[in-house]
Amino acid sequence: MVASSSHRYTSVAITLHWVMAIMLGFMIWLGWNMDENEARYQLHKSIGITILFLTLARIGWRVLNAPPADAFGLKPIESRAAKVVHFGFYALMVMLPLGGWMMVSVSPFQIPTVLYGAVSWPHLPFTSGLRGEVLYETIAFVHSKGAWVVIALLVLHVAGAIKHEVAGDEGVLKRMIPGLFGRVDPPTAPARGALLAFGGSLALFSLIAATSFLGAAPARSQTSLAPGLGDTISPNWAVDYDTSSIAFSGVHDGKPFSGVFGKWSADVRFDPDNLGGSAVLVRIDTSSARTGTKLYDDSLRADEWFAVRTHPEATVRLSRFESFGEGYKAIASVRIKEITRDVPIQFSLEIEDGLATLSGSATLSRKAYNLGQSSDPDAAWVSDRVEITLSGKAAAVGG
Hints:
The protein is of the alpha+beta class. 37% of the residues lie in helices and 26% in strands. The strands form two sheets. A ten-stranded antiparallel β-sheet has the order 5-6-8-9-10-11-12-3-4-7, covered by helices on one side. Strand 9 and strand 10 form a beta hairpin.
């Protein structure tokens, strides 16, 4: 029986075909043009994950909606070749994104993935023990060569489509491009199963994305307080947290960045007439660091940086206060990830009618705290110097 040329693919199949064709072409170009470009690297990963889940939806759609019959005059060997090319595309659209995901997961650099700058995406489970340069380079090599396989299949696919379009009336382009040559043909059969195909893929995507939030939860039952830093301080000032902040700033890839810690507490005992008896203890929730850029925020929470799962708290103890010009200076014993360093700090303080207004700053070395040393030990990307800025108000209390 001769297949009718009036039978075309469903609108969903046509849309998926062309959208994914454009995405694959862009992905190949992006892969060849993203060296030392963080934004393109993240976009490459984002589109790769999108292709993976669109492919899963497309496979589900294909199972529920059979394609039109082969065009008239297609030889058996041509029919088999077309099926091999289509199967190859489906396989690569699953395997290449999975390979890229695996490559990122085993990378010694452990750079977070943030899809389109908005959705945190986890590493593959059970890969922490596989991280290393050799496996990473091996997967990267195979992943890069996959692009050439895609190009080869694309050439065969396009060549076959053009051949049968110009050789007769039953080519696939008329069935894949509605309105070509003025023809608007109905699909072979009513479409069905959209909720199952796309809803299932979206549900799986959401489930995996949700694991990022669960995996980033800090271990609040643990404490990182060092001996001597947890001594009780009887405060004589109550900090107004709504008007106070602990901010940080530095340089990444030649561009300045800044952020704040959203959660912290401070016990303050300060007397200008008794600097020797003054002391401040600050506890900072490291998972609350916010820069306004999700990739930076996720990076700061990672094991290479603040390691919030095992070290949810940083502590600062101020002591050895002295008058300095029109303000004061002190020594801040800063503890991050079980590493304590003494850092000088300067601040101005105005006290009027029982209300104190403070403004101060200090400079830390991230290298001294083993922050980002795996991916950037030479500070080629992120500056070693990090500026800390303190500001706020406090009201005097009894004691």
